[in-house]
Design goal:
The chain is an alpha/beta fold and 301 residues long. It has 7 helices and 11 strands.
Length: 301
């Protein structure tokens, strides 16, 4: 009998989720667009597989090439599981955001470390009836990947801030002024539409995950907001995307050559998270979750 196909590729790769304005990465060798497999539906697009300085990378445009998917229609579960099946255990999430702070002007990059999730129309967990798990989101971002991002940003002399609260709204409409002022009062720093439930799913999949937020504009709280043209925002978006491409080339070798990755706590996020005992688990759910949670599901107790 033929052995079953492994649920996760044995080749370790760095995964990159690209947001608005970032639909490919440059300077990759041996590139090819290839289907990502998932039991949770269809990912946003094929993955761009390639190598940079000998290190394997998979890039996935979150909205699809041509920006065809609005935030609420992105299949976050398929994207995250698809990257893990492709062998990605380290995932960088790059996205465009609005700023809620005067000291975070357009062009600033923010290494986000906290979230407030205001989305309501998205599947937020791989688990469900028949197999229940509760993962900790107290510290939702991999600090190890954050360190690599900071080092790369500093070397490239790209303006950045380490640490910040990302408010994830449902969209696709932008905020009302009252909402924008409310989010500022909550201590939020940037606002976007895509990092949730992405970060929650990455934690459930035991992936090291770090988001990089690229500020394109001040949200509507700012007194000068009405004077910012769409053309200016688009220009900033493109400028940020070009910087992000350079950043990817700088940070991928740092991540790939980091010997501490296997010991990162992110990769054991499910250690004590599954609450349904083995004898009560739904067998279909167990099979479906092999790529996400096979490390712990194979245990008998």
């Amino acid at each position: 009998m033929a052995s079953p196909k492994p649920s996760v590729s044995p080749t370790l790769r760095t995964g990159i989720l690209g947001g608005s304005g970032l639909y490919h990465v440059q300077d990759l060798d041996e590139i090819k667009w290839q289907r990502l497999h998932s039991l949770f539906g269809k990912p946003s697009d094929q993955g761009l597989f390639g190598k940079f300085q000998g290190h394997s990378v998979v890039f996935l445009p979150r909205h699809g090439r041509g920006h065809k998917l609005p935030p609420s229609q992105v299949n976050y579960r398929a994207n995250v599981e698809g990257l893990k099946r492709a062998g990605c255990l380290d995932v960088l999430s790059i996205s465009a955001v609005g700023s809620l702070r005067e000291n975070l002007p357009p062009g600033t990059f923010v290494i986000v470390d906290q979230f407030i999730d205001r989305t309501f129309a998205r599947e937020k967990s791989f688990f469900g009836p028949g197999l229940v798990a509760h993962v900790s989101m107290a510290n939702p971002v991999c600090s190890r990947l954050g360190n690599h991002l900071e080092a790369a940003l500093r070397k490239l002399e790209i303006p950045y801030v380490r640490g910040g609260v990302y408010l994830c709204m449902e969209g696709p409409q932008f905020s009302a002024q009252a909402e924008s002022r409310l989010y500022r009062s909550w201590g939020c720093d940037v606002i976007g539409m895509t990092n949730m439930p992405e970060a929650k799913l990455a934690r459930e999949a035991e992936l090291c995950y770090a988001p990089l937020a690229m500020v394109t504009d001040f949200d509507c709280w700012h007194p000068d907001h009405d004077y910012v043209s769409v053309e200016q925002i688009v220009k900033t978006l493109h400028d940020n995307a070009e910087k992000a491409k350079r950043l990817v080339c700088e940070v991928v070798p740092r991540i790939a050559e980091d010997p501490t990755g296997p010991e990162c706590p992110c990769r054991k996020a499910l250690e004590h998270a599954i609450i349904t005992p083995p004898q009560a688990r739904d067998s279909k759910m167990v099979r479906k979750l092999q790529a996400v949670a096979g490390r712990v599901l194979k245990r008998k107790i």
